Here is the input.
Amino acid sequence: MRRRRTPPRSPLPQRHGIDPVHLRLPAEGPWTTLGGYLEERYAGGAGAGAIAGLLDSGQVYGEDARPVRPEDPWRPGAHLWFHRELPAEPVVPFPITVVHRDAHLVVADKPHFLATTPRGGHVVQTALARLREELSLPELSPAHRLDRLTAGLVLFTVRPEDRGAYQRMFADREVHKEYEAVARFEPALTGTFPRTVRSRVEKERGVLAAREVPGPPNSESRVELLDRHGPVARYRLLPRTGRTHQLRVHMCSLGLPILGDPLYPEVLDPAPEDYADPLRLLARRLEFTDPVTGEARRFESRRTLSTEPPR
Here is the structure.
């Protein structure tokens, strides 16, 4: 089995907590100049003009930390780095809190509306980019992810060599995860809790909402009623599996959609900067045996969910 080669270290530092783009040239091809290859690679795409501008202005770098030029000869297998132009993003006006930090882990208490990692239009306004800058930890990486609209605990690894062990821990379901949600109180369901919901949940690429479909179950959640607050109640959610939007789908299937959910039971289009009605879902607790140190770990979010009835 061939081992993947680790690429050389980038000559460019991160910018706003975001790594530069790394590009390796093909091992063979008909090109004679670097500009000719890049022009063909990005032809017709949205980045064609941007990469040409970066190349002309000396913002594409080679392994020797020197800018490369369009007329430079094409070298098979060479490595290049450059920074993309970052999209304009509205600032998420909520702090991210660190509840634990040591040589291996950072456990963050993420606010609503802040994505875990860069994706789509959310790049700098993400927990990863913010923490890399705020903590001066450029190699910080996520061990798992939390939906942008969900608040609560997210675990990041400090050292690249530790990341695989912590990711496997989540993949192998060795982490006890507890969530808290606020939804309406339904008297007719009171006697049915605690209960376990099992179903087949599928999420299609490009479609905002996941859905339950016929077939063998691939998701399981335990739902417990914690307490009532007039027309609404707090629920403890214990996912055994980790399908996309699983808890939101399962609560909706019980007739108890989580308050503030813009996707379930119906897809809405809230204003992108309207922070008045967050999804009332919180990743409350993480418990596990540390795969690197062997310690028993237990972390709890310091955030709370509003039990005010919906507007």
About this structure: The first strand starts at residue 21 and ends at 24.
